[in-house]
Design goal:
Elements lengths: L12 E3 L9 E6 L2 E7 L11 E7 H8 L3 H12 L4 H12 L2
Antiparallel strand pairs: 1-2, 2-3, 3-4
Amino acid sequence: MIPKRQHIIKTAYYIDGHGDPTTIVEFKREGDILITKHNDLTGQSVGDSPMITKRIPLTKLVEKYYSTDDEKAEVDNLANRLLTQQQYDAKLKAASNK
């Protein structure tokens, strides 16, 4: 579920697909806008490719991805699996201790 307007997230968060730099997506919320940043992969390598920043109104995201019951269930399921930084760090630490 999308947080109420008064809960403004000022911290950037990241989605990292198994350590591959092409899968890292930074995102943060500023008011009613979601700001994402990701590598556009147009260069000769990941390091040569520029980062793309997009600003997307939350209303457009809700309209496109969160209107049917199936969409709501899928988004809520994925959101419930996101880890906080503390949880992510603990997971990495536990994996490195094996």
